[in-house]
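Example 3.2
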Amino acid sequence: MKNKLIHRAPNGCQAARHDREHRLAKQAIHAVIAGVFVVACTLVRAAEGTPAAAPQAPSAQAILASVRMQQTQQEIDLQGQLRENEIVVPFRLTQTGPIIKYSFANPAEALQLRLGENDSRLEELSSSGVAKITPAQFDRKVRGTAVTYEDLALKFLYWPDGRVLGEDSIRTRNCWKLQLRAPAKSSQYANVVLWV
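Structure, written as tokens:
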């Protein structure tokens, strides 16, 4: 009976499965990044005095401006892992104000993100100095995972075309759900859905 329930996928399905796993890994990383912003959402709502029962939806740009402001005031020191299939990449994320640093080992690598008022800047730190990571490099993968330099650069926080899709709840916290559209051909993504 068990043999009848087990199906083998034809070889052509391997690529589809890989694409699905690749997409799921990216979604997991975006969920982690969005989780950091859930804290900012709580702080923004508390600062605005918006009651939790019946909040009035601010514009997407107002929410993003508040997130950027709150994010630049964070002090964070986290240890984590990027995972995709058998690949496990330990890393350390530290943030002091508007500077976020991603540190990797074996081999040593450090990326630094500067959150500005109107844009972010991702840089590679090395013994020879600091080098800006250009948009042409944004599709480069981090340590063989589905995460790219564009994902770490958080450029979507500055995209001007966004709308509030409504409210949602993540881990019992009320959030705004935003859809942000990339400026013309400036991203590998057409849009990003973000919970704040």
